[in-house]
Amino acid sequence: MKQHITTLAILFLTLLNLTQTRAQTAASAQTKLNVTRDLPYADPADPRQKVDIYAPEGAKNLPVVFWIHGGGWQVGDRTNIQVKPQAFVDKGFVFVSTGYRLLPDVDMGTIIRDVARSVHWVHDHIAEHGGDPKRILVMGHSAGAQLAALICTDDRYLQAEGLSLAIVKGCVPVDGDTYDVPAIIETVETRLRVHGLPMPKFGHRLKFGNDPAKHRDFSAVTHVAKGKGIPPFLILHVADHPDTTAQAQRLGAVLKDAGIPTRIFAAKETNHTKLNDNLGLPDDPATKALFEFVAESLK
Q1: Backbone angles phi, psi at 134, to 5 degrees
Q2: What integer pLDDT is reported at residue 81 of this predicted model?
Q3: pLDDT per residue as tens digits for the range 142-153
Q4: Rounded Cα distance, 135 and 168, in Å
Q5: Can you tell me whether residue 208 is helix, strand or coil?
Q6: What does the alpha-carbon distance between residue 271 and residue 286 come to, in Å, rounded to a whole number?
Q7: pTM assigned to the model
Q8: Which has the higher per-residue pLDDT, 15 or 102?
Q9: In the chain, which residue ranges form alpha helices assigned H by DSSP?
Q10: Measured between alpha carbons, how far is 124 from 138 in angstroms, rounded to an integer?
Q11: 11 vs 32: CA distance, rounded Å
C-alpha cells in the first residue's frame, strides 16, 4: 500500500512538472508586445477617433491587421479585442484596433468615413511602428464586419482619403448580417410581422438611414464588380445562425461571380460572441482558417 501511494505521488509530481514546463514554454513562445494606445487619427479627435497599435519588438516592414470592433454601431470599443493582438504578433504581424464614432451621435455614413480616415492614418504612420503600409488586411466582427466588407468593396471611401484598394491584401468579415442591408431588413421585419410582434424601435431600417437608396448604398454586395481591385475575402460565420449564414452566402456568391478569390467558413459549435472571442486561440478551427487565408493572401 505504501509503495502504491509513493508511485502515485511520483506520477503526480511528474505530471505537475510536465504541465509547468508546457506553460513556461508557451509563455516563452509569446512575442513581446510593444503597445501604443490612444493615437488620434483626426484633428481635433473625438475620444473614439483613435487607434491602438500592437507590434512585436524590433518590428520592421511587417504586414498589418486592421481590426474594426462590433457592437451594433452603437456600443463597443477598440479595446474589445481578446487574444487577437498577441496571436497576430506571434505570427509576425502588426495589429491595429480602431475606434469610430457611434450611432446615434453620428450617422452611418460618418461612421464609415471614420473608418476610412483611420485606414488613411494607419497607412501614413504604420511604418513608424514596424508595419508595411502596402500590406494591410482589413477585418471586423459583427457591425465591424459590415464596415470591413464595405470599405473593401466600395472604393469611394478610400479614394476620398487619397488611397486605393491596392493597399488592402485581404478582407475578413466575421459573422456580419448586413452585407445586404435590404435583405436583412426584409428578413427581420417579415419574421416579426408574421408572428404579430412589434417592429424594432431602432432596427436596421433606421440605423441605415430609413431610405431604400441608403440601404442599398451601405451594402457591400451593391459595390462588388470586376476590375476594382477588390481583395480576396474570407467570410467567417456561425454555422447554425440563419441570418449571418444567409448573408455570408449572399456576399460570397456575389464576390465569386466577380472573379474575386473568396472562401466562406462556417464555424460549428459556437455562437456570435464566442466566434469572435476565440479568434487567435491555437486549437480554434476558425483561427486555423484565418491564418491559412492571410498566408495565402500575402504570397
Answers
A1: -95, 0
A2: 97
A3: 999 999 999 999
A4: 6
A5: coil
A6: 12
A7: 0.90
A8: 102
A9: 2-29, 84-90, 108-125, 143-151, 156-159, 181-194, 204-207, 212-217, 220-223, 242-257, 272-277, 285-297
A10: 16
A11: 34
Q: Do residues 213 and 151 lie in contact, with contact meaning Cβ atoms separated by under 8 Å?
A: no
Phi-psi category of residue 224: left, alpha or beta, with phi > 0 → left and psi -120 to 50 → alpha: beta
Whether 25 shows a pLDDT value over 80: the answer reads no
**CB burial class (10 A; 0-12, 13-18, 19+) of residue 194?**
exposed
pLDDT for position 17: 46
Instruction: Give the residue among 177, 116, 117 at the shortest CA–CA distance from 143.
Output: 177
Contacts 24+ apart (CB under 8 A), 107-114: 107/209, 108/73, 108/207, 108/208, 108/209, 108/214, 108/218, 109/209, 109/218, 111/73, 111/147, 112/147, 112/150, 112/151, 112/157, 112/218, 113/157, 113/160, 114/42, 114/48, 114/49
Q: What is the 3-state secondary structure (H, E, C) of 65-81?
A: EEEECCCCCCCCCCCCC
Mean pLDDT, the chain, whole residue set: 92
Helix-then-strand count for the chain, H and E: 12, 8
The answer to whether the CB of 130 falls within 8 A of the CB of 55 is yes
Q: What is the DSSP letter of 127?
A: G
Is the predicted pLDDT of residue 121 greater than 80, yes or no? yes
